[in-house]
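Attaching the record inline, Q. Sequence:
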Amino acid sequence: MGKRIYKTNPSLLSLVERLKKESFENKAPVWRDVADRLMKPRQNWAEVNLSRIERFAGEEETIIVPGKLLGAGVISKKVTVAAFKCSEAARDKIAKAGGKSMSIDELLDSNPKGANVRIMG
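Structure, as predicted:
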């Protein structure tokens, strides 16, 4: 039997707790899904490049990345992207395309029902 690893990052733990609470209170299963993905081992977290968002996201869409958003690729669509971690290059490219990058907490504040949010990763 393998050794059990527990998460110790306090900001991650409080975010996961908040996601579960919001999921229950607002009947929004998308938040529970994101919380479950963030509790997986870090090597299994999503690492999404901007090129993937460019390929699969629609204009004005809201994307959530339960992991890290990386700046490889080009983005021309005006999208809102929320991620646990985001590289500076990704932030700059999203802003230049007219989009918005934010933390998962900020997205939770602005959209507690989780309406029209796509999980990518």
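Helices lie at 10-26, 29-38, 50-56, 88-96, 104-110. The beta strands are 46-49, 62-70, 80-86, 100-103, 117-119.

More tomorrow.
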